[in-house]
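Student:
Attend to each token:
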Amino acid sequence: MTMRTFERLPQHWQRVFTLEWEAVCAGSKAIAAVIADREGNILSEGRNLTGERRIPNPAAAHAETEAVRNLDVSRYPDKHSYILYAGLEPCVMCMGTLVMGGIRHIEIAAHDRFGGAMHLMQHSAFIRCKQIEVRWTEPFLGDMQRAFQTIREQLYNHDEEKKQRMLTDFSACNKAGVEAACILTGHGFFTRKKPADYTANDIYTAILQIMNRKE
């Protein structure tokens, strides 16, 4: 498996993980997305806001919907050519937002067997006619995505039964990332410092080191 340091990631994936750690530090889910042009320039971004109260009802404030909502189509009108990079497979709501928002190219790090909706695109004639291209990244990025999500649940989810169900779901495709994150949190990484005292690079690097030792 190819494993890259944070600095060697493309800019858009660095930004996805940076936004995800911002979400964790704010109490939201570790999920983010960015929209970039073909040259890799980031045009818009969004992160999960569901654990925050900046908006009256944050339940629908998912990463992909925020990224599409934040795309300035008056400034960047060629929306069909842009690529949305998503840390986690979009849910039904986000899939619909991507379709209606004009996004036709999507790259995803982690499969989501429980809440992911990409397979549903084949069941809609309307969506099929949009000819949306979906690509999946190298497995390592999926492991890292699930590691960030696992850290969030270990830090904030106090319902042990629900948390274990979630970690089992995360492990379905990305067991290595979940195990590395459990090792990190179990060894007191967050007793010495608060989550906000670390950067996304710090977290990514710590997970990478554990995964390298387990290889």
Notes: The helical segments are 11-25, 63-70, 92-100, 125-128, 139-156, 160-186, 189-192, 200-214. The CA atoms of residues 147 and 179 lie 8 Å apart.
